[in-house]
Every structure is written in structure tokens, then in C-alpha cells.
Protein 1
Amino acid sequence: MEENITHIVTHLVLQLAVILVAAKVAGELTERYLKQPSVLGELCAGVIIGPFALGALSIPGLGVLFPLPHAAHGAAIFIPVSNELWSVAQIASVVLLFVAGLETDLKQFLRFAPQASVVAIGGVFFPFVAGIYAPVLMGFTDNPFDTMPLFLGCVMTATSVGITARILGDIQQINTPEGVTILAAAVVDDVLGILALTIVIGIAETGGVSISNVALVGGKATGFWLALTIGGILIAPYISRLLLKFQSTGASLALALGLAFIAAALAEMFGLAMIIGAYSIGLALSGTELKERIMEPLESLFHGLVPIFFVVMGMLVNLEAMTASIGLGIVLTILAILSKVFGSGLPALAVGFNRIGSTRIGIGMLPRGEVALIVAGIGLARGVIGPDIFGVAILMTVVTTFLAPILLVPSFKSGGDGLTKH
Amino acid sequence: MEENITHIVTHLVLQLAVILVAAKVAGELTERYLKQPSVLGELCAGVIIGPFALGALSIPGLGVLFPLPHAAHGAAIFIPVSNELWSVAQIASVVLLFVAGLETDLKQFLRFAPQASVVAIGGVFFPFVAGIYAPVLMGFTDNPFDTMPLFLGCVMTATSVGITARILGDIQQINTPEGVTILAAAVVDDVLGILALTIVIGIAETGGVSISNVALVGGKATGFWLALTIGGILIAPYISRLLLKFQSTGASLALALGLAFIAAALAEMFGLAMIIGAYSIGLALSGTELKERIMEPLESLFHGLVPIFFVVMGMLVNLEAMTASIGLGIVLTILAILSKVFGSGLPALAVGFNRIGSTRIGIGMLPRGEVALIVAGIGLARGVIGPDIFGVAILMTVVTTFLAPILLVPSFKSGGDGLTKH
């Protein structure tokens, strides 16, 4: 037991060392020579050093650096890294979204909340429809309302707020009208996505939908999110004043992080993603004096921790698993891009953005990231989808996730105002 | 699998939130009202919220926040927190010792290295002798060279460089002659302690000592440590220049952390503690431009992470287990204090320190901390000591660990020069 845990910790520390070095080297190369955001380099580094590539090789005297974990109780392995590494990566994502929340201009966020809701609905509806008809189109099934196509629809609706928040933060565009709309829409998307998933799991397990169950899950998630956000905004000045009373070094930072972690854990318990809780509490504290005080030290933490999340995201990519149903994969990926860009972009156009702004919003909603992977993993674990459809979902996720930074940066650099109509 | 890991991560995030809040509240109270270093408050917070006290209570709707982990393969549970939490705490200790190394004045360290070696030898020899004779004194055994007393001797030799480094850092006394002597002696102590443990395990398993095995283990550990420290000092200017070439934000910090993690993992693989590797690489980089650049952001990381280590240390305390052999426990604890304070203090007196300086060094070497717990855990896992002797070792560790900050701060505040003889 003792030697076992010592070994686990040593192995984790070695993994983190390799991840940090790989992240920074790849990030630097990507920025300097490819003129692309460093997050793209970090994702690629993860693919290269991960358990499906170099990480699986045995190093003399060290063994395998990133071995696939053993499946417990005969369950399918969904997350191909150790619990410890996955935990560190998830903590990093919580810090990422907390910082994104702190950096958001609350007034601007509230101003664009209605537009964001419309964008989110479009960004959920069209990808869902595309997801359930894609397997029909490719001859995998006749009925788009079978559990498999329904599940694929859920995977398609996901939006990875992590990727977008990181890029928007890096290029300092979080507080543009498009920036806040994307972040707010991604939050609403998460709530809607959970509702869709609840419905589909209900159908898969009982063959029907229980309206009361959907209402319960939806009410719980929405109610908690509204309570956290509104309550947080109301008591933020008091929290700020209380935390600034602490005089010991670093206390306000540690306490603020503690708050973010509590909000994240509560969000998960109420059926939302952890990152939604972290973002909401960050948003609530964004206008306070506390934010001014903790922002600089928090950014140091950010740079040391957040790259770990993106490298681990890259590690989830299993290129081999994608090739199994490559035809459906390509069709689904194209549909995923079109349905999200137009599904979010057209509503944006309808609520006041011009073509430049709507394009930015459509692209910003594009990456599926870890949210889609987690949904697909649930499907695989419950046997609703097989390894082939899982591979297809991964392909779609990877392409949309890698495409987002490549497209988003130029879309913000060229153009200009995304609101004014000509 | 998927829901399982999500649950693990949520639970960990909630634990970290509670730990951070408890650490900072307790630290603030300790500093402000008890005028004691905050590390003492953090340790106490750990005892109170840990798995042997409040943490074991079931919270409605949440369950048990700090449950004891299930023992794998019928092994004894030595570390009473989850692998994930223990991993985070260990990473924190690596950061702590890396910062302590960076803050050490290398010239001063080398100047006092000979004195420190003498102090370390005394600080290992006397506690070891006290440890093997205490059970004889109390009638537990007749032979001080039985495996149980020998093991207790090993537990007694440990020095927790973590506790001392934290306190010396907090009161800015790392670079006094006493400060560097304590840190260097603690490092040498770790090497000597590993040799002693190797010998005792050899006796326990084969009934005798293989000189070649001891030479191998000792040579490996000493050789690695010397190579890391001397090699590190020689190439530090090049490492500094290379890392400062990276332009992306936070790259130099993340890369330096990566280096520290690699050194820590390698140290563990060569039979040393991780923290020794982290300290040595920090020491090597202490005079470079890189240090100037990363010190400020690193301190933010320090304040967010290091308290977690001390709260988790407090969580290891099981007051109930200590009461089983309370008589031996009290005797052993008194011997632990006397043998370490005089065992390190008298050699210090002999190598040029005055009484004030020698007292500081003796107290600085006092805390056994996590090192003793790990050694005791090995003994328990191998069946060399029973739960009663384990409880005794814990009592000794807890008292010396809590006593150190209480005594060390006043010893540095009063007095003055620890070298000049009157």
C-alpha cells in the first residue's frame, strides 16, 4: 500500500514534468513559427506524448510513462489516463473557467444574455438534428429516434467553453459583444445539453420519457445555476470585503480558489459541469476589489496549471479508433461544423450581430472538447453506442476542437466591429 | 468507470476547497491571536477536519467528506486519505522544497556544508540509539537489535525538512548560518536515514546485513545526490539562459517547475525522497537570473498549494491510535526531543556555533514530519511493527512536528548572532 502510493505519486510527478515541458516547448513553437495560439501546440503535444502514441512506449529503466489504466469491473476504458492525472487536469479546467469568469465584464455579459440564449438554442437544436439524421443518411439505422442516433445527437450539441475561453482570453477578446455572447451561450448550452442527455438516457433505459424526471433534472440544474449566479452577484461585495480582511500572505487567493472549488463541486452535484460553477462564481466576483488583488497571482497559477488540461485533452485522441467508421466520421464531422456554425451563427444574425460578428460566434461555439468526450463516454459505458460510434464521436470532437483556434484568431483579427450593420 | 472518475474528481475538488478555507482561516487565527506561525494552524486544521475527527462525519446530501480509503489486497491502511488528495499534497511538498532551494544562498550553503555533515551524523546516531533502547527500557523486548527496536530507531532518525524550511522561509532566516546548516543537515540526514532503513529491512527480511546491498543502496543515493547537485550547479547558468529564451507567457515558470518535478521523481527512483531532488535543483538554480524571474509567480503558486500539504499532514494524526501504548509513547517522545536537540546541537557546538546557534539548529532538526510517517508506514505494511508501535511512532512524530514551530520562532527572535563565541 505504502510503496504503491509512493510509486503512484512519483509516476504522476514525472508525468506532470513531461507534460509541462512538452506543453511549453510545443506552445512556443506554435506561437513563434506557425503563428497559431499556443493551445493548439499543447493539444498536439498531448496527442504525440499520449497513451496512444509515444507515451505507450517503454523507456528502459522507467517503464511506460503514460500507460492505459486497467478497466475496473470489466467496464470500458473511457478516460485513457490515470485517475490522478485526470484529477489534476480537471482542477486545471476549473481554474481556467474561474479566471475566464473573473475576466468577463459582468455588465456586458448581462447585456448580451438574451442574445446568447437565442444563440444557444440554435446551437443545440441544429447539431442535435444533424446528429440523429447522420446515421440514417449513412445507412446505420432507419430510425433517427433509435437510442444510438439520439445519443449521437447529444454528443453533437456539446460546446467546450474551455477551449473558447482560453483563446478569447489569450487574444483579449472576452469582453467584446461576440466574446460574452459565446461564453454565455456556452453556459446555457451546457444546461440544454444536460436536459437532452437526460431525455435520451431515459429513453434508452425505459423506452420512454418521463416528463417529471426531465422537469426535475432541468429544474434542479437551472435553479442551481440561477441561484449561484444571482446569489453570487448579490453577495460578491461582502465576500470581497471579508476575504480582503485576511492579512496572512496569499490568504485571499487561496480562499477565492476555495470558493471556486466549492461552486464547481456543487454545480456537478446539481447535474451541471464543474466548470460552469467555476465560471459563474468568477463572473460574480468580476467587479470586486478582490478580483484586482488576486488576478496577478492567479495568472501565475493559470500558466502553470492550465496547459496540463490541454495536453491531457490531446492525450484522449486515439487516431486508430477513428479509422473504423471513417465514412460516418467524415460526414458527421462536416455536419458538426456546419450545424454549429450556422445553427449558432444564423440566430446571432437574427438578434443584431452583423455577418462578421455572427461568423465569430458560430466559430466560437464550434469546439466540442471535453464535454462531448464525457457524453460519448457515458454512452459507451452504458452500451448505448459501440466502440465504432465512439470512434466517430471522437473524430468529430477532435476536428472541431483543433479547428476552433485556427479559425477563431483570424476571424477576430480581420474585420472589426461585429455589431454594426452596414 | 466514467461516472466513477467524475465522482472522484468532484469529491477531490470539494476536499481541496474545504482544505484551503480551513487552512487560511486557521492560519490567520494562529498568526493574529496566538502569534504563532500559520503552519501550526494549518496542521491543527488538518487534525480537526481530517478522517479521524470531523471529516469522518456524514454530511446530509454529501456523505463523508474525508472517508478512510479501502485497503487494497488486505494491506494495512497507512495513508488515511485518497490517492488523489495524497498526490496533490506531495506535489505541494515538492513545490515547497523547490522554493526553499531557490531561496537558499548557495555560497552560504557550501560554506556550512562540512558543519552540516557533522550535525547530521549526530542527529542520526543519537536518535537511533534512543529509538532502539526505548522499547528495552519499557520492557517491550530484551534485545535492542530485534527488528522492532531497530525499526523504531529508523523512525527516530528522520528529519522533516518540509516543516523547518517553511518556518525558516516565513521568518526569513533561511540564509543565516543556522538556517543553511539545518537545511543541509536535513538533506544529509535523509541519505543516512535511507542507509539505516536499508540495513534494518535487510535484517528483518534475511536475518542479516548484506554489506554489498548497503553499499549499493548508499552508493546509488549518494552518487545521484552529488551528481544532481554538482551537475545542477554547473549547468544552472545554461538552463537559466535556455529557459529565459521562451517568450510565451509563463513558459519559464512552467519549465522550471517541470525541471523540479523531474529531479524529484529521479530522486525517488534512486532511493531518496522526492523533496530532496526538488531542493537540490532549486539550490542549483538559486543564483541564476531565472530565479529572479520566476520567484514572484512561484510564490503565488506556493501560497495556494503548500497549505494543502500541511493540512493533509495534520489529517494523518489519529489521536485514538496513540493512546494504545501511551507509556512507551511518552518515553519515546521525550527521548526523541532530547536525542535530536542534543544530538544535533552538541555537534553544532563543536563545529563553531555558540549556544544560541546550537539551540536553533537542535530545534530545527526536531520535527520528524512526513518522513517518519512514511518510514513507520513501511514498517507497518511489512509487519515489522504492529499497530501499537505504529501509534507510538505517530505520537512522537506529531509532538515533535507541532513543537518545532512553537520553539523555533522565539529561538530566532531572541538572541542574535549564533556564531560568535563570547
Protein 2
Amino acid sequence: MGASVAAALRRRGLTSSIVGYDRDRGVCARAVELGLVDEAAPGPAQAVRGADLVVLAAPVGAMPELLKAIVAQLEPGALVTDLGSTKSDVMAAARDALGPAFARFVAAHPIAGSERSGPDGADPDLFEDCTVVITAARETSAGALARVEALWRSCGARIARMEAGDHDRLLASVSHLPHVLAFALVAQIAGEPDAQRKLSFAGPGFRDFTRIAASSPVMWLDIVLANRAALGQELRALIAMLQRIDRALEAGDVRWLQQMLELASRTRRSIDGDRHEQ
Amino acid sequence: MGASVAAALRRRGLTSSIVGYDRDRGVCARAVELGLVDEAAPGPAQAVRGADLVVLAAPVGAMPELLKAIVAQLEPGALVTDLGSTKSDVMAAARDALGPAFARFVAAHPIAGSERSGPDGADPDLFEDCTVVITAARETSAGALARVEALWRSCGARIARMEAGDHDRLLASVSHLPHVLAFALVAQIAGEPDAQRKLSFAGPGFRDFTRIAASSPVMWLDIVLANRAALGQELRALIAMLQRIDRALEAGDVRWLQQMLELASRTRRSIDGDRHEQ
């Protein structure tokens, strides 16, 4: 997603030059080749030197080390922001690592996804009509906040401000839990002796449902661990719902099942124009 | 899906005339208007009179009544087939209702889906490259089987023959369980006081994951009830997997979580070229 941020800022003329850094040198080289960044730095400290905006696009578990690696080289007045899917942990790491510069750290989470990743998946329009959650702290400078929000708006995004803990509970419900369910279902099938045969009968519904299970396990290990308290709560509530369904199936409780299916179908149809035959 | 069968047969010149019937008169009128059927019959018995092929495209729970309604009017030698998502129950109903004509009943399940339903969603190419499961009984005539399979192949489908019970266990795993999970998640969120706010933060991953929850609750009530034994087994296995994940989150069992996520991601990536950034 870092590549898409670079592409979006560049396309809108919001930056004069972009320096990129990735632990994978191949990714750096490709980003330069594609013109997404003007140059690749050999390390995070070198990448932030001279920058007035630093965008951290790393798995959330890598943030503490990354923040420590850049703090000494940050320009006075440089804005720092991130794209992490969890916010309480990233803000705690930033508060811890950045010292007074934490006032210019603006935690952000663009709720955007893409089927492609890496520099070749960069999409300058990825943030058009997407929601970017901004979780400010007491210490966050109003000026830093306004400038980062303006950048996102320039890329076509809507801003939603909320507390970090509120963000994490919300996302546990509508993002982290669905990912865990998709990973769990695929892992479950993969562990069975006839997995290949079963998967060969997977239809379009299965493909839609499990698409998010193809997501990066590295990134998602970090997310589920970082947000395990809120995620665990959502997970246990869902387990209780599934146990209720199991009992209703066994008891032939048609009325309850019907109400549950109707509520779900009506609710899902309400969130957009999607319809599905089967 | 009945409309897509009509469109597919017509497009390939496999039929001289098509008579349609639906309980909803508006659907009948629209199917005639679109030229999907040549005429609409006032009832199921009238619809099958003179037909050499009868395609039953109704929710599986409606099959027993429907079969009883048509049996007296079936032409000698008429083939009967269905499109139901469960097979043991439909075959039992057909065996029960059709008497000797059961030899010409060929149970079929095209594993195809579409985001659109009804006559306006008819797609003559829906079955291109799709798998059609055929579950024959001991009594099924070899000639009837060959003719129905040839029709599906003409529409671009691959045939997979298996036992009805085997089909139902397989589909419980790769279709019915994912649908139940998607319905359950959406019903769970819908039942919470801040449902609208939560849904307003749903990203593309949530939309993909829950698309199947917009499916017809009528059709899915029938499916989950018809296949409740096999579905219940899959559901309880998945609940055990989710409980294992919950324990791993609580215990911080990083290694197990990592292996589970990697297995799921690798497996999901293997079934097609899909990739997803987050």
C-alpha cells in the first residue's frame, strides 16, 4: 500500500521527490524502475533524512523497531504517519520511540484493499472514495493533524476521526474477524486428507468468501496479535452464534434459522447493490 | 438459474420451444418478454405436458411438492433433471414421487453462481467451464444419464459423477459452511446496537467475504435444513478450529498462528491467481 500512496501523491503533484525504503532490495529496485520513487535509500534512517513527510507502510509488528531506527534522523517539523491496520499498538510504539516528535505523528488507517501488492500493484486511485481513519492522541499537534488529513483528502479519501481503541474494536468486527474466519476455513479444509478434491469443487461463492485468506500471513500475524483482545471478544461472540446455529439445525428450529438468514441477507443487500443468486 | 439454463439451451440451438413456470407471475411474464421462454404455463402440471426435458429450478425444499404436481403429466420417455444444491434429499423426493419415471430422473448440481438472479440475470454462458455434479441412482437409466450429461457438456460444463451423499458432504464443506459463516457474521453485526456504524467501515475484504450472505434466504433455509447432518459436522469442526485460534491468541502462541495463516494463504493462492494486499 506504500506504493499506492507514493503513486497517489505523485499523480496529484503533492510531492517534489520521494525516497523509498523496503527491506527487500528487489522491491526498492522495482519501485525506482517504475518511477514510484525517485531513489531508494539503503536503510530507514537514510530514507527519512531531509523528508518533510514520512509514511510508514510496514506490518504493524515491525513498527517499534522502525520508529526507533528513524527517530534520530527525523527533520525538525517532519510529519510522520502510518498505514497500519491496528492503531493502539502503533500509537503506543510511536509515543515510546518518538519522544517530543510524537506530537507530529498522525496515526492513519486507509480502509482500502487491493488484489495486488508490491510496486507492481501501485494504484494512484486506490484511495478515491475510501475512508481513512485518523486516531489522534492528546499530544498530537493540530497543525500536523490538519496537514495529514488534507493530504488524504487530496487523494480522494474521506476522513473519520476516532479513538485508537474504538478503531481497533470496530476493525476487529468488520475486518480482522472476517479475515480470521476465511483463514480458518481454508486452513481447516487444507488439513483434511481430501483437501485437493474438495477445493476442486470450490465455486465462485467460495472464491469470494476466501479471497482475503490469500492475504499476507506476515501482515496478518501482526494484526491478530496486535489486536488480540478486541479480536478475541468478537471471535468468541461469533463462536456463540455458530453454536446457536448448530443447535437450531439439530433441533430443526426453522423459524429461528429463517429469521437469522433473512436478517443477514437484508443487511448485506443494504450495504451495496450486490446481489447473488445462490 | 433456471433462466440461465433456458438461455444456454436456446443459444446453442438445443431446444425447439421452451415452456416456463414460476410461482411468481411477474417472473413468468418477464421471462416471456425477454424471449427466454416461448410461453409461460399456469401451473407446473401444464408446464411439463408435451415436454421431452423437464428442468426443476426450485428451492430444494419445494421439490417434493413440485415432483408430485408434475408426475401425472410427464410424457412417457421425458427426462427430468434439477439444479438443486443438495442431492440426497432431492433424490429421495424424486424416488418417492416419480415411481417408474424415477429411472429418467437425473439429479444435477451446476456449481455456478451469479451476482444476479431472476430472468434479468439470465446468462447463456453461465455454465462455460463450470462443473456440474451428476448423482445417479442404481435405478437411473444409462440412456437418460448420457443425454442429460451431453446437454450440460454442450453448454460448456464439465461433468463430475459421484454419490449423492458424497456430494452433500463435499458441498457442506466448500459451499454450505462458507455461506453459513457469511450469514452468521452479518447477522451477528446486524444484531449489535452500533451495526450501521460498523457496516459503514466495511472495506472491500468484508464485501467480498460477505457477498454470499446477500443470497436468497428462502433457498438457503432449504439447503441448510436439507443437508443439516453433513453441515452440522463441518460446522462443529470449524467451531473447534476457531476455539483453537482463540486459545492461541490468548496464549500468544505465535508459532501455531503463523503456521495456520501460512497454510491458509498458500492454499488459497494455489486455487487461482487471486492475490490480495491486505
Protein 3
Amino acid sequence: MVGKSPAVVLLSGGLDSATVLALAAREGFAPYALSFRYGQRHLIELTAAEKVARAGGAVQHLVVDVDLGVFGGSALTSDDMAVPHHDDVAELDGDIPATYVPARNTVFLSLALAWAETLGSTDIFIGVNALDYSGYPDCRPEYIAAFQRMANLATKAGVEGDAVLQIHTPLIALSKADIIRVGTSLGVDYALTHSCYEPDARGTACRTCDSCLLRAKGFAEAGLSDPALAATAWGGGG
Amino acid sequence: MVGKSPAVVLLSGGLDSATVLALAAREGFAPYALSFRYGQRHLIELTAAEKVARAGGAVQHLVVDVDLGVFGGSALTSDDMAVPHHDDVAELDGDIPATYVPARNTVFLSLALAWAETLGSTDIFIGVNALDYSGYPDCRPEYIAAFQRMANLATKAGVEGDAVLQIHTPLIALSKADIIRVGTSLGVDYALTHSCYEPDARGTACRTCDSCLLRAKGFAEAGLSDPALAATAWGGGG
């Protein structure tokens, strides 16, 4: 790793963050992948994250425990709220959905900041996307800019003025189809990724949650079939 | 609790946050106390936090697991680094000490933000202090202002524009002696609080870590004796 700067890459095991990992590596960083056990309904995405980290050449992959489930307030962490399902992607109305986890990106970026500071890294990568973004407030460019400003005041490096922390959001202006095209050109194996909010016990995607619908739309618009669906027993092809 | 707005109060079990809890209650908020099991060397402070929360009239006290120890980089979470000890408070030189936990306040405030959002609260209280503050970058007013700006872009309320989140830092301009005077006037029982970074197995304060020295200086300047020390078996009186 001589000469390579370390960068912390937030890795969910989904399609977006797998692409971000590949982009961080292409930019010449030594990627340190960070995932969370945060009280999500299923841990299939962490298994996916582990495979993606290995395939993507992460120097290290850390899974940190942070229990967001204790606060409730989201269909992704609370059994009291249902994950919404739709027949068609056109039904997604742009409102903030029940799957929004309060302050999740803020918590995840804060933990990435903690690791970056101990690694001596000034670079954090996150796969937020302002276009096909499911309506989450903490995916907007103005939010990311404000986080970066705060982060530069939060740390030793900021006080000493000898480093400037940067939050990289290489997907922010891309459509899902663009992301898939970019990742495919970089050799990302999307068969390893997992996007579904509510898979069955065998890990099979539901195809009707917001995340499945946006993923299917992306592959369709990119003119590609989804290798993760092709790999399932029931033979779906996206 | 009719008519009272909920506020999230970060509660470490130390002297400062116990005072903040009392101030939040005096301002008319219904306080929700939040503490963390974050990989700290000892859990005595969490026992203290529980007592302080009860005595201070917290509506609820939540202890959230978030493992900052996995990142290393601090004497408070890593056995590889020693907690510094000094003979005298004058030896504290203003540099960022080994007890600094990377991004700790950012992580804690982010989790407070998650709880505030699920509670429908727009108020978070934190006992940071820019005067007798041990040299931590994330205790400075400009850092807090930047966090508040970011937080207002991070949440549903920020998007919908119908609420403005405020980070309250009532101790920011106070000396340790001022804090103790204010808290004493509000009836805070400092015998319940714990400040020491490296107590012995019985929970007795070391009297020589930065936190013990700043606490002792505060009580001395306020012309009061420290009831937590008076309560120990060896009969110290501050």
C-alpha cells in the first residue's frame, strides 16, 4: 500500500456502495470499508458487504455495532412499522418513506469520521444519491456539504489546520442506471450485492419494496439484467 | 408532562452533564437522558448516569451501545494508550490530550439527533464547555454551530421546514466553578456524579487525571467541598 492514502468507504452491501468502493480504489485510495449492525431487520446485507469488501480490494472491513433500533421510528429497525410495497416504481411519490431511519447517515458518517481520524485519513466515501434517492433528507448535497464543514471543526486535524477532511459522494448526481453502467465498467460484481429491504428467509429479494423497484428500474434503463436476481433459485432475471 | 416539550440531554454521569440536566428541566423541558456504552474503560460513569437521571427527573434514560473502542486512538477506549496523570492542574498544557476520543461528540450528538427526531423533539442539550474544556476540538462553539446547521439539513423536519433543531450548550462559557455554583443552586447532588478517567476497582477517583484535577480546581474556586470525594472511604474532602 506504499503511497496510497487511506479512505474510509461506507459499505452497506448494496449496489450503490459497491460502486463507490470501486470508484475509491480507482481514484488511488487504499479503501477501508465500514459497515454497521444497527438494528436492521436482517443481516443479509452484512454478508453481502463482506463479500463486496473482499472482491473490491478493501484493506480492512470493519462492522461496528450501533443500536439505532432502540429509538424506533423506522420500518427498517422496528417491527411496529411495515416496509411499504408497491406494484410499480411509478407509485413512489417522493415523500419521505417509512423506511427512513432517523439520522442514519449522520450517525454513519460520524463513525466514519472517528475511524478516519484514527487512521490519519482525510477522505470518506459515501454512496448517497440525490436523483434516485428514495426521498431521504440526508442524501442531499447541501446536507453533505454541511456535514463536511462540521467535520472539519470536529477533529484534531481541523484544529491544527494541517488537513482538510473531504466527504466524497461520487454517485450524487448519477441515476441508478448511470451507477450500474459505471460499476459494470469497473468490474463490480453486482451478483454479490443485496438491496432488498424485506427479503424472505432464504435471502430472496421481494421485488416490491422501494429499494427493489429502484434497482430493477436502474438495470432496465441500463439495458442490463440484474445478476443478483439471475442467481436466485426462482430464476428471475430483472 | 402536559405542555412540556421533550428535550434530549446527553448524560455522561459527570458533573457537567448533571448540571445540564437540571438546567434543561428548569427551562421547562421534559428531559430524555441519553448515555452510551461506547467502549470506555469502566462503566462506573453509567451507574452514576442512572442515579443522576433519576434524581434529575428524567422522563426516560436510554443507554445506547456504540463501540468506539474498535477504532482505537484514545486512552479512554484503548488499553494500548495510558491515561495521563499529573501532580497539579497547572501541568495541563492546552494540547489535545490522549484522552480525546476521535469524533466522540459528533457520534453522541448524531445519536441524540436520531432520538430527538423519533421523539418529535427539536432540542438537544450537551454539557460542552469551551473554557475548562481539556482541549478537545469538539467542545468549541464554532463546532456546535456547524453541527446544528448540519442537523437541520439532516432531518425530516428540516426538509419540511416546520421545526428548527437547536443544540443547547448552557455551560459553554462557564468556568468549572461557575458550573458547580449554578448546579448547587439548582439542587444538583454532585455526590452522585463521577468524573475520574481511571478510578480504582472500588470506584474511587484517582485525583491525578485531567478530569479529577479540573473538578478539584472547580470545587476549590467555588469555595465548596466535593461531596463525591467526601463520600469515599478514605475520607478525602476535595
Protein 4
Amino acid sequence: MIQPLILDGKAAAKVIRAELARRVAELEVRGVKPGLRILLVGSDPASQVYVSSKEKASAGIGVSACVERLPESASFADVAGVIESWNRDPAVHGFIVQLPLPRGIDAYAVLKLVSPARDVDGLSPASLGALASGRPGFMPATPLGIIELLWRNGITVSGKRVVVVGRGELVGRPLASMLLLHGERGDATVTVCHSRTPDLGAVCRTAEILVVAVGRARLVTGAMVSEGVVVVDAGTNSIDGRLVGDVDFATVAPRAAAITPVPGGVGPMTVAMLLANTVKAAEQAAGKREL
Amino acid sequence: MIQPLILDGKAAAKVIRAELARRVAELEVRGVKPGLRILLVGSDPASQVYVSSKEKASAGIGVSACVERLPESASFADVAGVIESWNRDPAVHGFIVQLPLPRGIDAYAVLKLVSPARDVDGLSPASLGALASGRPGFMPATPLGIIELLWRNGITVSGKRVVVVGRGELVGRPLASMLLLHGERGDATVTVCHSRTPDLGAVCRTAEILVVAVGRARLVTGAMVSEGVVVVDAGTNSIDGRLVGDVDFATVAPRAAAITPVPGGVGPMTVAMLLANTVKAAEQAAGKREL
């Protein structure tokens, strides 16, 4: 048994943040301070943690991040009002609506209001439609982070059989769409499976690269993967106060060529990609087009 | 060797058109005449044929269809002007831009202008974004026709392993997205493969249902499919003046449980679904919501 390569998202995110900090410094020379806004509605405890890690990471690279908090009782009109002001504010280069929203506020209707030029979460229907049309603008942070983490570890998806477990709008669906784009970070053969897939193990065993994003703790076990697989675990489940992924690390790692830890795998990459999108938005606003 | 079930799109489309004609008659009682517009730019010979079959089918069920022709030399502004007038015209319930457009006119930029409420081709970024967000509005006619044809032949996709060959924006990608929706016409385990898939045959042989939409004559042969597969051929290639599909019917049919012919399979269903979307658009405009 060979030890798998650990796909260290924390380390990769640190390198990315250093690269982004240099770009922010260049923008500052030109008088532009990248501005990110985060809308947090209600008091979901996990959201509080995510938002504060996004704030901290922003500050660390010189991005000015502000959080607008609305109470659980906020109306759709309250939320829409904030978004519409940010769509027009020249100091706001990008903004995100932290999900989930309280029941009674339709996230789809909210995301429809987000201007694609500032949609640094890449989750608005306009951004997803651009991706589906093969003309991606900002792409969702978690799938972007997954592809980036593989790329920085020398793992190409092009020409590979990638199995995505999970068909959610935030990770599984857009990831599949991105993996099918033309180019060296796409060109994969992609299978999407989910709760209605009869023999999940049989499908997972066909994967050269397996990405799991369903939100069920330790769903994927060692018997469900082939020897030498690359495993990316995008799950975040809280079990007895501990964060565990969708992959049973103890039984899967010994069979894997490479695997992400949870925590410290996909999570930090998601935040890094949000920052990357924000810096890119600021550069575009400053008339400097580069990725 | 058992004869496969022939998935007769011509027959299914005829039944659907009869159903739609009844709905059009009901609308007419209420003073509403469904109106479809088709924008045809340039003189692509295949497009001429497709457009005239759409006109004929519309007339057959009482939908008023008009074709607006622009020369090959038309500018983006000319195209945009037509779309913008149709977006506002109360007599136009739905319209389509016949693709491909002449070189030099960006189809994506054109489709961005189409109002989702009238996008009966379902190909605008807004419609594709709604689909990607799990909130489909009008869905693209060809993938819709494929799912409908299977459904009307008692073949459910739910829980099945469906392999889609082709990742184009018109068929492969939106079909994959639709097959992943929740519900009895979705819930499939979906694999998308394409020109960069190393061993296409090996992937195709995993399919219970195989859909081919790449535009390469007879790409899929008998050796590439498993015994008992259901095969849908969305290819239309002209060989020596004859229309042939992407599937080599002669070698695949003997191994298949069911298979579409070309012509007479997916093609007529595409036209029928365009009409279904148009009638639905007219019903919605008339304030009568039903599918």
C-alpha cells in the first residue's frame, strides 16, 4: 500500500492568495481597491462561519470586504433592494448572496437580480446560462476550486473519466458543465450520479477521478472506488461537532492515488476562487483584462 | 435475433400535433391565435428545408407562422432589431432564430436578446440558465423531443444509465441537464462523452439508453453497443444526397431493444416540440397555465 498524494487545499489556497495579493497591489497603484460585498440574511450558524472566513481571507490580500446583515424576517424586497444598490455601486466590484436564504425567500428569484458583471459567486441564472452556452463568465467558486486544486497538483481532467456524485445547482451540475468545456481544464468524459442511481458503487468504480458533493457523511467507502482513483471530497457534514466529508477517508485513502482531506481540501479553495473572481472583476472594471 | 422496436418519431409527432390542434382550437374559442415567428438569415440550404417544415407543421395545427428573411449580408443590428420588435409584439407568442447564423453574427449575442417568455426554442442563455438552476422554462426542442419520444414508447429514463455522445449547446449539453432534473422524466445517471473521449465504444457499451448527437455519419457501430440497448440517433448527415444518422443502423439495430430511424425519428419530434412550446407560450399569454 502506497500513501496517496494528499491534495492540500489549504496550501494551494495560500499560494493563490499570494498571487492575488500581488495583483491587488498592482490595482492599488492604479487607484483601484477591489471591493467585495456579502449579503447575509438570517442567522444560519454555518453561514456565519463561512462569511467570516471570506471576510478574513479578503482582508488578507487587500480586498475590501463588507458584510450586510439582514434579519431572518427580511422580505424579498429588502433583499432585492440591497442587490440593486450593489449592482450600481462603482465601489462594489463583486458581491455574493450567502446561501441558504431563509425559507420564504426564493433564492432563484434573488439570484436572477445579480448583474453578471459582479456575480463573483457565478451562481446567477445568467452566469449559469453563459456556462451552459459554452461562454462562461464568472464560474462558481467550488467547482472552480476543485478543477484548480487538481490542476495545481499536476492532475489533468482532459480525456479522463470523471464521475461526479451529486447533481446540486451549487457544485455537481456546474462542475459537470465546466468539465465538458473545450480546453485543457475541460474535455473530460463526465458521469453524474445521485440518489436515484441504482448501483452507486458500480458507477464510482468506473472513475479515474471521483468528485463527491452530496452532503451525506461518509457515503463513499473503499469498496466503491477503484485502485488508483483520484478523489475529491466536497462534502461538509457536521458529526458530533466534527467536520467530516462525504467520503470515508479511512477506507478510501488506502486505495486512492490522490485524495483531498476534509477539512483543508475543497473548502479553502472555494474561498480562494471567490477572491480570484473578485480580483478579476476589479481588473475588468479597471479596464485591465487578464485572468 | 429479435427485431428492435422502432421508435417512430413521425407517428408520435402526428399524435402530438393532433393533441396540440385541440388546444389551439380551445384558444381560438377564446380569441387567441397562437403566433410563431421564424428569423432566417442568409441562405443555408438545410435551414431552408427546416424552416419550411416548421411553417407547414404550424399551419397544420392552426398556429400562424411567419418567416422573416434577412440577407446573408445582414448586420447584427438588423437581427437585433427584428428580435426586439418581436419581444414586444402581442401577436407573437414565440419566435425562433434559425441557426446557424452567417459568420460574423455572434449567435450567443443574438440569443441573449430573446425574451425568455417567447423563447420557444429554449436556446437563449436565460432559458439555459433557468434549466441549469433546476427551474426550467422553455426547454430546447430536440432534447425535449428525445425524452418525449422515449416516454411515449414506454421507455423511462429515470434510474437508467444514459450515455449522451456529443456535448453541443443545442442537444448534448441541454439533454444531459434535462436528464438530471428531478422527476419521472429525469433522475437518470448521465454520462456525456465526445471527440476527446479515449475509448468511445467502452463508454457507449455501459449505456442502457444511448443518445448520439455529434454530426458524424455512422460514428456508432454495432460493436460499440451492448445487447438490449435503446438507441436514439439525433444525427443528420447528408451522404450522397441521402440523410443518414450518427448511428450505423445496419449493425446497431440487430443488437438494440429499440432504435430511432433516420429520417423519421428525432427530426419530426423536434418540430412537434417547437409547436408544443409555442402553444404553451400562447396559453401562458392568454393567462391559461397548463402544459
